[in-house]
Amino acid sequence: MLTAHQRNLIERVDHPEWVGDSAKNIGENRPSVHRMGDQLFIFHVLAERSLDGDALVYIPASGKIEPLTGAQEQFLLNCQASDSKAFRLLFDDRFVTIPADGWSFPEIPSAPDLTNVRSRTLVLNPTEQCNIRCTYCYYGGAYDGTRLHQNLSPGYEELAAAIDSFLVSDQRVVDSQQAIYFFGGEPLLGFNKMQEVMDLIRSREESLGISFPNLILQVNTNGMLLNERIMNFLVENDIYMNVSIDGPNHDLYRVDRRGKGTHDRVRDKVEWVAQNWPDYFSKRVAIISVLSQPLDTRKMYKYFAAWDVAQRALAWDFDLVLPGGSGSYDEFQSLFDEQDKIWKLFVSAHKMDAAQRDRSLRYHYAFSHGFLHRSFHRALNQSVPDDPAEVSHLLGVQLIPGSEYLVLGANGTYYTSYEFQAETFSAGTADAGVDYRVGLDQLRGFADGVNSSSCSTCWAARMCTITFPEAPFNMQDSDEVITQKAETKVARCRSERENLSKALNSISAIRNRFGEEPLSEHRADWVRQQEEGPSIAGFNQ
């Protein structure tokens, strides 16, 4: 738990900016909350307008987008004083208010239910060393709280303990989807450890007398070390592979130890895999690209549109790396103009029907941007609790840290964050097992930060994806560290609201221009993904 002093420090940095009884979030230029006596009206006026030219407003308490009359729009954007009578006259029951305390977030339990908790994803670092030196890498020494490249790798006993505790005979686990991911450093530098893990999985299946048909295996690699021996191993064991190639900006950041670009060598490897293992390439290989400055989304599209080999891959994934500090977010702020072009491309693609979109390279390119599909689905498929003032989860946190995502560091320590493999996020060891009570302690610091900040009045709270590694407040933190973390959270909040605002506007634009059917198709696709994807039903109350 944080002290009252620490909570006050967070509030000083991260707070709604009030003028009279109206407030806006830091970084936004329009009001988004009005206070009227013992009630709050939280809202977000969209840039998109209705077919009739009316303004549109998102009301998080109901989860709906509603039209506004001219008088209602003027009231919301200009009112700076409490006027509950005017509000009652102007607005009807569609415009739900909540108590003046703001959103009610779930309480953190005093102890985990250890009989039901089970981790779904296990991330293994076969090595912490890397054969190149990407300048934006979490482990390159540029970011506070992250480790460096080190000559460490987990021992056989540690790997065995991790696999034994992760793969159990509980039928709920066997029937649910689980995943083991190989990261690093560059995991192929620890290829022998990957082989050990596969032997341990087979041994575990044999000892239990069962198989794990829903277990996904995946390796993230820079591709430089791929050879026939490694490829045969990946194919034989049905291991998914993500290969990093950044298109036009690749050689600006993804450099070797001598500072030379690696683009041509990686691309040659990708094309070699596609030529020699075409079926595996189309079903198991994804191209991962980091969006970086200077970003030119048209140039990025032309790069991949001209590369026919990349178009035969299973998937693309384009996303930003914003690893921490307000300066990092300021640096990426200019990328939002380029993101706007992606959103516009995504919306315009809905003039095609679903079958045509599936064949459209432009649509595939737009929807492969992580910031877009995450925000769009959050906005389109949001669930609203029975209590209009309640947020059913703690922003992006659905479960106790460690119960969904667990990282085994090369030193045998379990961590609840991949980026920040540090003591703050440790949660046990391979030998002793996961300590979910530590995960709860980590979550309590995050919850204190959420409850002390602008989250309680933010229009985006119910859709927010910010998780505890992005605001890891801790009672041991100094005043300076608490303030720095709060500033980082404010920057991350601005990015989150930017994306969610674009998602809400895109939903309205698709509805206006192309009707409800495309949105229904997206909802059905989301349901199908949930049914086919990771499921932890029954593990937690």
How would you describe this structure to a colleague?
With 541 residues, the chain is an alpha/beta fold. It has a domain at 121-321: TIM Barrel (Alpha-Beta Barrel). 41% of the residues lie in helices and 15% in strands. Strands 14-13-12-11-10-9-15-16-17-18 form a ten-stranded mixed sheet. The protein has a five-stranded antiparallel sheet with strand order 1-2-3-4-8, with no helix packed on it. A hairpin with a 2-residue loop joins β1 and β2 (22-24). It is globular. Residues 323-327 and 533-541 have low confidence and may be disordered. Residues 519-531 have a biased composition (Basic and acidic residues).
Basic shape: globular
Largest sheet: 10 strands, mixed
Q: Any idea what the CATH architecture of the domain at 121-321 is?
A: Alpha-Beta Barrel
Which CATH top level class of the domain at 121-321 fits?
Alpha Beta
| Parts with pLDDT < 50 across at least 5 consecutive residues | 323-327, 533-541
Provide mean pLDDT, rounded.
89
